[in-house]
Amino acid sequence: MYIVRFPNFLVCLLAAAVFPASAAPNILFLTADTLRADYLSCYGHSWETTPFLDQLAGQSLVFEDCLCEIPLTLPSFGAMLSSLYPRMTGTSRNGLKMPEDVPLVQEVFRAAGYQTMCVQSNWTLKAHLSRLGRGFDIYDDDFHDKRWGIIKPERNGQNVTDTAVGLLAGRDESKPFFFWVHYSDPHAPYNYHRDLNRTGKQLWRLNLQDRIRVKYDTEVAYMDGQIARLFEAVPDDTIVLFVADHGESLYEHNYLGHGRRIYQTNIHVPLFIRAPGVKPGRTPLPACTIDVGPTLLALAGLTAPAGMLGHDLINNPPQPGRIRFLETYGGAVPRLPGAKFLMGGSGPMRSGVVHGGWKIISGGGEVELFQIDTDPMELKNIAKEHPQRVLEFKKLIQAWQKEHAKGQTQVVPLSDEDKRALQSLGYFE
C-alpha cells in the first residue's frame, strides 16, 4: 500500500535541480480536453485536420499507446500532476478536490525557481473546485462563456491562446517557466466550424452520427489552428509535452460522450514530447497518464517526490509487458452533498486491465474481453471463449485495488453557477 500524505514543505526538499537557474529549460505542458488519439492525422485519422500538431509530432517522440486511468477531466489531470491513481487521492470524479497534502508537479517546479503559470479552460478544473491551482504563481481560470444563451463552461481556443500569449509576453524572464495551457474545444456540445470541414460533404446531408463526428472533427481542427498561433509566441527552445486527458466515444458501442465507459475510444490519448536529446520517432511502449508528472520533472532535470508511481518515459521507460489498470466512477457529480461521501466509498462503475494485447472490462452487469491488438475497436467480446484469462484478469484487478487503497473523498461546496456549469457538461445528476 502506498502512502500518499506528504507535508507540503517536503516538496521543496525533494526538488533537486540538475540545471543552474539560468540554464533551466522552459517547459510547456500543452493539453487538450476530450481528444481521442485517432482523430489526429499523426495517429491515423483520414482527414487532415491537425496540420500543426502533426508537424509538432514530427519533431517529437510519439507514444502510440498511451492510456488514461479514468476518462474524466479532473481525475485524469489529477493523476498526471500527482502521479497517483485517482482512487488513492479520492479524486475519482469531477467535483471532488485534490487533497492539500498530495505533492503536485507544479509545486516542485516552483520550489526549483520556476515561474509557474496556467491558462485553464474547463469548468471542472477551476481552482475552487479542483484544488489544482496549488503551486501556480498564476492560475488563470477566469472565464464565464455562454453558448446558445446557456452556460457553456469552457473558454474557447482563441481566448486560451490570447490569454496565454499575454502571459508569455509579461512573464518574468529572469526565471524559466513551467506553463500549463489547456484547450477544451473538442468537448461537447461541439461547435461546427464550417470552414474547417475537410470531408467535402455538407452537414445537412449526413446522418446524425456522421454530423456529430464532423462537428467534433472541426472542433479538433479549430483547436489545432489556435495551438499553431500560440507557438508563434513560445520560445523556440521550449520543451513541449502534449497530451489529452481522455478521449470521446462518437457513437461507438452506442455511446456518445465519456466518463461512463472505458473502451479504447475513451481512454486512448495522444502523447508526444519534443525536447533536446529526445530523438523524434514513434514508440509502442505502453504509457499511462500517471507517467506525465515524473516525465515533466525529469525533462527539467528535477527529481520527482517519493511516492509518485509513474515512469519517467525518457530515462526509465516502462517494459513492453506493463500491466495497466483502468477505472471509471461515472462522470456525474451527485446532487446531494451527502451522496458525495457515500459515493466516495463506493466501488468503481467499471474496472479494466490492459496487458499483452488483451483487455478486460468488468462492471455494468457484464464482463467483456477483447484482443485489442487485432480488434482495436473492441467489436468482438470473447470472454466466454477464454474463461481462465477472465479469471486471471479479475484477480489482477482485485490485487491492484487492494494495494492501492482508496483515499478519502473531499467535497467542494457547489454554487448555483457551478451546478449549472457542470450540468451543461453532463457532470451532474
Q: Whole-number average pLDDT?
A: 88
Whole-angstrom Rg: 20 Å
Query: How many helices in DSSP terms?
Result: 13
User: What is the 3D form?
Assistant: globular
The count of DSSP E runs of length 2 or more, i.e. the number of strands, is: 16
The ordered H/E elements are HEHEHHHEHEEEHEHEEEHEEHEHEEEHH
CATH class of the largest domain: Alpha Beta
CATH H level, superfamily name of the largest domain: Alkaline Phosphatase, subunit A
Instruction: List segments where confidence is low: pLDDT < 50 over at least 5 consecutive residues.
Output: 1-21, 338-344
In CATH, the topology of the largest domain is named Alkaline Phosphatase, subunit A
How does this structure look, described?
The chain has 13 helices and 16 strands. By secondary structure, the protein is α/β, with parallel strands linked by helices. It folds into 2 domains: 311 residues, Alkaline Phosphatase, subunit A (3-Layer(aba) Sandwich), CATH 3.40.720; 56 residues, 2-Layer Sandwich (Arylsulfatase, C-terminal domain), CATH 3.30.1120.10. The strands form 4 sheets. It has an 8-stranded mixed beta sheet with strand order 4-3-7-1-8-11-2-12, sandwiched between helices. The radius of gyration is 20 Å and the shape is globular. The N terminus is likely disordered.
